[in-house]
Design brief:
Strand content: 35-45%
Order of helices and strands: HHHHHEEHEEEEEEEEEEEEEEEEHEEEEE
Structural class: alpha+beta
Radius of gyration: 25 Å
């Protein structure tokens, strides 16, 4: 009997000591925040927040979320791809992380015949090819319960572009903005620019300006979402047109000295404080940036030079720049000769080739990278709520 009693004590004591150690660690707010910072994805962070109100308080704290974002930027789930003649885009997943499987499945479930006008923060702004009318709508694939939010009918004017708001909240359904342009006068060297926002079933003029153009309004290939009252457009002639609504001025930006071809794309990034230019020549990439608040509209700075695209180099091919994500982490490229679509992660220089997509012509591709929602959506609690996670849908 003595031997039996003695045999149980060595296992009971370490177990108690281990439980005490865990309690001491998780009971320390500083250590708990450091542990939560090690979670790789916002989805995992939201699940951890369901443990208790104390965990939720730390996980949803704005200062903590800023640290979390610096360590773990919103992940690229995949991209929507539409080729010339297709009535609907298809979703191509990029991430294979098990923690993001639900989000990827929902992103791929977006159905309908539509053209994507803008894509950011887990939402799509689409031109919906309804059988009876052409209308604009907002989709939230990661939150399917929201369904499709149809926007008010567009103003009956030409030269209109639609975007999602820069700083719209993750659950904001009234998050669309439109840029309307109306050439004035017989020479069309003067332009009325209206910035409209959607809400309460109508488009409302938020800001307007009459701007003198440096020349007759050139045909615009595409436009970036408005940033702080500034609108950057790429013309079909390969020039960058800047419309400054606050100053009621415009100018054609000079390209960086070493950008000698039209093989580039533009992005204002997620924060909108910098205009990026991503240029390809042969199998090399270069990335330039221009502060959107700079007084010198041509003060370009080279941030990445001679980035080798290994796949193109091995095939002895030139690359064509197609698109970038909001975080400027991934650049999507097309290999001209073999008609292959690929992307590169700029920080690690890792590459992925999509031979299975069989892209016919990259010049007519429409690519929209699709990111995770940020900030993460935490549960809104009442005093009598319990945090067990059973009634919460997580993405």
């Amino acid at each position: 009997m003595e031997a039996e009693r003695g045999s149980t004590e060595p296992t009971a004591q370490p177990a108690a000591a281990s439980a005490a150690a865990v309690s001491a660690v998780l009971g320390d707010d500083d250590l708990l925040r450091e542990i939560l910072l090690r979670l790789a994805f916002p989805t995992t962070l939201v699940r951890a927040a369901l443990v208790s109100r104390r965990w939720l308080r730390h996980a949803s704290d704005p200062a903590f979320l800023r640290r979390f974002r610096r360590l773990h930027p919103p992940a690229l789930l995949g991209f929507y791809l539409r080729e010339l003649g297709a009535w609907a885009p298809r979703f191509v997943p990029v991430s294979r992380a098990p923690e993001l499987a639900t989000a990827i499945r929902r992103a791929g479930a977006a159905e309908g015949q539509f053209f994507i006008s803008d894509c950011r923060n887990g939402r799509l702004l689409v031109t919906d090819f309804d059988p009876t009318a052409c209308r604009h709508a907002m989709l939230s694939p990661l939150r399917p319960a929201r369904g499709k939010a149809v926007l008010p009918p567009a103003p009956k004017r030409n030269l209109i572009w639609f975007f999602l708001l820069e700083k719209a909240a993750a659950g904001d359904d009234d998050g669309a903005v439109a840029v309307q342009m109306l050439p004035l006068g017989t020479t069309k060297a003067k332009l009325q620019v209206d910035l409209l926002t959607s809400g309460s079933g109508a488009w409302v003029v938020h800001r307007t300006a009459v701007i003198d153009l440096p020349e007759t309004l050139p045909p615009i290939a595409y436009m970036l979402p408005p940033v702080g009252g500034k609108i950057y457009s790429l013309t079909k002639s390969g020039h960058i047109l800047l419309l400054d609504m606050a100053a009621a001025e415009s100018c054609l930006l000079q390209l960086p000295d070493r950008v000698s071809t039209k093989n580039f794309t533009l992005s204002c990034g997620e924060e909108g404080s910098v205009l990026f230019l991503i240029h390809a020549e042969g199998y090399l990439l270069s990335i330039w940036q221009l502060p959107t608040t700079s007084g010198d509209a041509n003060d370009w700075v080279l941030v990445h030079a001679k980035v080798h695209v290994r796949e193109a180099c091995s095939r002895r091919e030139n690359v064509m720049v197609l698109a970038v994500d909001d975080n400027l982490e991934f650049v999507f490229l097309w290999l001209r000769s073999s008609a292959v679509l690929m992307h590169m992660h700029l920080q690690s220089r890792s590459e992925k080739v999509y031979d299975e997509l069989k892209v016919r012509d990259g010049r007519f591709l429409d690519i929209n990278p699709f990111m995770m929602v940020w900030p993460p959506v935490f549960p809104a609690l009442r005093d009598d709520d319990n945090l067990d996670g059973r009634s919460l849908t997580l993405v």
